[in-house]
Amino acid sequence: MHSEITDQRFLSRDGRHQIPKFKSIFTYYANPFDKQLTLTNEWMDWMFQFSLLPKLHYERRVREASIMTSSYLYPFCKDIKRFERLVKWMGYLFICDDHIELGRDKKTTNLIIDQAMDSIKRLEAIHVTGEEHNVSLLNFKPYILCVYYVVDEIFLDMSMDQRKRFIEVWRSYCLANNNENELIEVQLLDLDRISKVRLESGGMKTLFALIEYSEKIQLSDEVWHDDRIQRLMDLCNLCTIFVNDVYSFEKEYLEQNGNMTNMLVNIVGFHVLKYKCSIVEAFERSLNIIREYESEYKELADSLANDHNLGADGKKFVEGLTAVNAGNFALSIHCNRYNVIYETK
């Protein structure tokens, strides 16, 4: 399945906040594996038993989102076992994010981060350095233990360079998790600083590092660290973050009871707070930034596609990254996790 992303409008339940028309320049694709409902539901049932989330919450916010995200972000994956592990990794990101949101305190966040960091340390010792480690899996939260085994399986099909890169971005994601809360606490109205934190805290870099795994390709370290590839990943990261901010704004706004100060790191909320503008104007400002990033991304991606020195796998990686960029837009519109507003008791 593929389609050009056309004009979309999002209207809140009471009609207050309407997103202006926006047309992405990218085409999204969906992986046909997402139609294998018996298998995908078995995977998500397995994840649920480790999630420690209420059944209703899991069904509304995690099950569909994990499958749909993997389908839209990895449409070219042709190995069902690899697709399964991608879905489970996505489930881990959503489950951890929801536990941090539900806890809303540093103690809860730090405990989750510490156990994830211990998982990284153990996996790094086993699969990369070969050094001794003293990390026990005892007392790990079930969903941390679950993702430990998923990544352990992923690493068996990764090269050493790919393992190192994945560990680096997973560790950065964990370390950045508290930084968003700190920005909100001090109400830092600096978009460059906010963007820098969110490039790490959103977890998108872990998803970029799995593109090679999903398509069975291999980038050299030289290509991975090429300034153009790094910039392309940053642009894709910023596009995905800000698009999600726009299309999930209404849900977040109602969840925060209209308290905009708690929405500082949302690009729409930032503009309201920074420029004292209306929400309508904040939407337009945010979409203008996304348009600029999309335009720069396309120009750079087209240039890389015509670079004969990049190699076949390098070009496939760029194609996969573009699929992530496009897929995130479709996801932000269609996925219930970002759009459906549930009553809270």
How would you characterize this protein structure?
The structure is a single chain. With 345 residues, the chain is an all-alpha fold. The protein is 70% helix and 2% strand. It is built from 16 helices and two strands. The chain has helices spanning 37-51, 55-73, 80-103, 106-129, 142-156, 160-176, 179-186, 191-201, 204-209, 211-215, 221-224, 227-255, 267-275, 279-305, 312-334, 336-339, and strands spanning 2-4, 27-29. A two-stranded antiparallel ribbon has the order 1-2. The longest helix is centred in the C-terminal third of the chain and has 29 residues, at 227-255. It is globular and about 55 Å long. The two termini are 38 Å apart. Residues 2-15 have low confidence and may be disordered.
Overview in brief:
The protein has 345 residues and is mainly α.
